[in-house]
Structure formats: C-alpha cells, structure tokens
Amino acid sequence: MENFDAALRAADRAAAAPFTQTPRISAWYPFAMAAYFTAVAATYPLLRDGRIIQGVGLLLAAVAAVLILTLTIRARWGTWPRMAVAPTEIKRAYMLFIVLAVAALILSAAIWSWFGDTTGLVAVFLTALVLVSAYEFRLYPNAARQVRQRMA
C-alpha cells in the first residue's frame, strides 16, 4: 500500500509539473500584453472613423505579434499546459484573473465613454498592464508555490 501511495503522489507531482516548473516570465511581458490589448482596442476608433485599412492592419499586426509571442514562449517552455487539467490552486488563480479582467474591461469601457478615445486607450493599457503584472508576478507564482507545498 505504501508503494501505491508513493506512486499516486509521484503521478500527482508529474501532472502538476507543467504548472509549477514553468520559467519566470520576462519583465517586458506585461508591457507586451498591455500593448496588444491596447492595439486591439484601438482598432475600434479607426474602424468607426472609416479608416478600414489602418484598423484591419493594426488588428492583423497585433494578432500576428501575440501569435509569435505565444509560439516563442511555448518553444521556450517546451509545453503549453491545459487549464482543464490544472491543479485547483492554479485554476483558482486563473478564475480570479478572469474576474479581474472583466472588471478591468468594464472600468476601461466606462472611462472610454466618459473621457473619449485617447483616455480610454490609456485606461485599456494601464488596466491590462496592472492585471497581467498581478497575475504573472503575484497570483500565478503564489498558486504554483501552494501546489508545490501541497505536493511536498
């Protein structure tokens, strides 16, 4: 029975490894993601004002950049874990991130409607920067540490 329990613990640690063994994200990553979200949001005023080529071009450039970034990170890490099989602590941190993202979206939209396009885009950038930084440097590392402690 002892061997069976040890085998189960080893299997749990192996399943959690893609979530707990990932390298620390670079300091520039939150800025890149904030720029991405801001670029996507900036397509709205361009399209609204009839500048279709610029709007579509900006959107395609933003999507291409985030795709290249994603592929680069995946190649660096050697894996891209699925959240469906994440440990509970990681899922909890991710769900908090989603809730905060919705709040940031609502806040940015409100600021945009009250103060206009430029201030709205600044709000999108700043809320995305704060949100991604909080998730990457606080929420996720703390959740991964909790998983490692539980598995120890």
What's the Cα radius of gyration? 19 Å
Given the structure, what is the number of helices? Answer: 5
Q: Please, how many domains?
A: 1
Note the overall shape.
elongated
Structural class: mainly alpha
Low-confidence stretches: none
| Extended strand count | 0
Biggest sheet details: none
- Termini, distance in Å? 19 Å
Indicate the percent of residues in helices: over 70%
Order of helices and strands: HHHHH
Q: Give the amount of beta strand, in percent.
A: under 5%
Mean pLDDT comes to 90
Q: How does this model look, in words?
A:
- There is one protein chain.
- The chain is 84% helix and 0% strand.
- It is mainly alpha-helical and 152 residues long.
- The protein has one domain (25-151).
- The mean pLDDT is 90.
Considering the chains and any ligands shown, give keywords for the structure.
5 helices, mainly alpha, 152 residues
